[in-house]
Request: fold
Amino acid sequence: MRPIADQTILITGATGGLGKSLAAELAASGTTLLLHGRDDGKGQDTVRELQRRSGNRRVRWYRADLSSLREAGDLANRVAGEHGRLDGLVNNAGVGYATPGADGRRESRDGHELRFAVNYLAPYLLTRRLVPLLVRSAPARVVNVVSVGQAPVNFADVMQERSYDGIRAYRQSKLALIMFTFDLAAELAGSGVTVNCLHPATLMPTTMVLGRIEPEASVDEGVRATMQLITSPVLENVTGRYHEGLEAAAALGQAYDENERRRLRELSDRLTGLAAAAGGPR
Reply:
């Protein structure tokens, strides 16, 4: 793997919580950072703060609202068009089950259930669009931030239109991202691109948690666990793993079912428009 100072890494959801703390750690190491968020003011402030604190001027801002698949796709296009290399992608942005103002069922700008759209469909599309650049940049790593809270993907009512529960919606979206992790890891085996996911730490004091649930872990714990998947030489050729903190763990059983992963892939390609672009299911 390249020295971390020579790498270019994209982090989604990088203006607060785990994403911002992770960005600060990498900025201090000299990494070229591409920071994503949906608020231009917070984004520009974050870039200036990290540049000032680290002395690293190679910190760039990218705005996109991941509740819009068009904006998620545009983000991928901008990154691919402006950078000749991408050594790492950290899909961190998401909507929690305890996010203020987001307890009831809400829909994305494309009409999909919000948590499934932001936590799963957007990183699915973003990652798929960036795969060619990641492969050309190999060795490269994809790290998906998921959760120990997981629920099976209900293909009969994925968008929970008949019966809605925010916690179940959140957990389903996170298992879907784990399933994508395993599926993409198998697809990219031998390419030099590894794909792993992790539950970084339980109930860190982030926007998703503060004021709603008592925190149990520090953001620093989550940063250490995520940094391990991004930088550890020991994990250079390790792919298709789910971690809880610093240790490998087992995800919910559906994630290991190839037929269920195929069903999810076909659904995801259809919902994101990738199936039409490719002329049919892959």
About this structure: The domain at 4-276 is CATH 3.40.50.720 (Rossmann fold). Residues 20 and 69 are 23 Å apart (CA to CA). The helical segments are 17-28, 40-54, 69-82, 114-137, 166-187, 219-231, 258-272, 274-278.
